[in-house]
Amino acid sequence: VLLVLVQGWVQSMSQEYDYYSWPSDNFQHGRFYTKQSQCVDIPADLQLCHNVGYKRMRLPNLLEHESMPEVKQQASSWVPLLAKRCHSDTQVFLCSLFTPVCLDQPIYPCRSLCEVVRDSCAPVMESYGFPWPDMLNCNKFPFDNDLCITVQFGNNQVTQPSVSKICTQCEMEHKADGIMEQMCSSDFVVKMRIKEIKKENGERRLVATQKKKKLLKVGPLKRKDTKKLVLYMKNAGTCPCPQLDDLSGSFLVMGRKVGGRLLVLAIYRWEKKNKEMKFAVKFMFSYPCSLHYPLFYGSDPH
Asked: Where is the NTR domain (predicted)?
């Protein structure tokens, strides 16, 4: 996505501006301080922003990340949000902060851009037990003007939740890497049968059978949690979940413990003959989890 606001400016930038100082207000009450900044290439493995529409960015960025390893680590937390397609401007908004375009003044996202992305994406994050983070508090960004990045695609292109859209916890592909990344980012992983499902207060409550439960990853679960295993799917009261159309057989369930409740992050039907699933379960503890920092699963986006 090319940032329309800065398209002409980017084309006019010269290599002579590779190094210079620029102010960052740190989003706080108009207070500015100066840090030495440099222009660097956006690396191809910075998945969040490598195709954003310009090739060079500023360090430190507008979130005060001072090194490329730090940018990569923190930005990778937000990649799953792009896959959810909660708003057309999600990448524009996030990359304006993580990989700001090289200009002689910092160009922040406008408050309106933050608000439309927040209003569409916060419910998705909430499904996983994460609030919209304070570092992206929209009140910290400037009102619309000629010097901030405005909404690019308009409110009418927001992807609104609907009853036909599959629940976020049920959108999982049966690929080994994807399953293992989910395992990494979950507090607990359990193979279980489901006794019953109840819908209440806009969410689903899954009650496991007492028998044939197998904890593959215990995490913070206590004995009282596992004795009568009850899990919750937030914002999943009306959306379809094909995995749960038939409760016969077993399920591979991954989740987080939030405020004393067990929230479902991902649910798969257990398939004995599925080689990808068998491989993931067998090698889940040897997978390099430290290389993955998914957003609203397991690591705080702050």
From this structure: 167-289
| Domain span at 80 | 38-140
Q: How confident is the model at residue 290 (pLDDT cuts 50, 70, 90)?
A: low
User: Is residue 24 in a domain?
Assistant: no
295 within domain boundaries:
no
Is there a domain that residue 51 lies in?
Answer: yes
Domain count, the chain: 2
Please indicate, yes or no, if residue 122 is contained in any of the structural domains. Answer: yes
Q: What is the mean pLDDT of residues 265-280?
A: 89
- Residue 276 is which amino acid? E
pTM above 0.85, yes or no: no
